[in-house]
Amino acid sequence: MRWILGRIGLFAVTCAVLLAVNRVVTDNIRVDIVSLLVLCGLYATLAVSLNLINGITGQFSIGHAGFYAVGAYVGGAWTMLMRPALEKSLPILHTGTQIGDHLNLLIALVLGTVCAGLTGLLVGLPSLRLRGDYLAIVTLGFGEVIRIVILNTDAVGGPRGFTPITELVNNHGIPLFWVYGLLVVVVLFSRNLLKSAQGLKFLAVREDEIAADAMGVNTTKVKVTAFVIGSAFAGAAGVLYAHCQTGITPDSFDMNTSIIITTMVVLGGTGSISGSLLAGMVLTALPELLRNDFIKEYRMVIFSTLLVVFMLTRPQGIFGHREIALPRFLRRLGKKGESTP
Amino acid sequence: MSQNGLLSISNVTMRFGGLAAVSDVNIHVAQGELVGLIGPNGAGKTTLFNLMTGVYTPTEGSVSFLSETLNGRKPYEIVRSGMSRTFQNIRLFRELTALENVKVAANMRNETSLLSAVFRTPHLLRNDDEIDNFSRNLLEQMDLADVADTRSGDLPYGLQRRLEIARALATKPKLLLLDEPAAGMNPQEKVQLMDLIRQIRERFSLTILLIEHDMKLVMGICERIYVLEYGKLIAEGKPEEIRKNPKVIAAYLGEEVE
Question: How far apart are CA B54 and CA B174, in angstroms?
Answer without folding.
Answer: 16
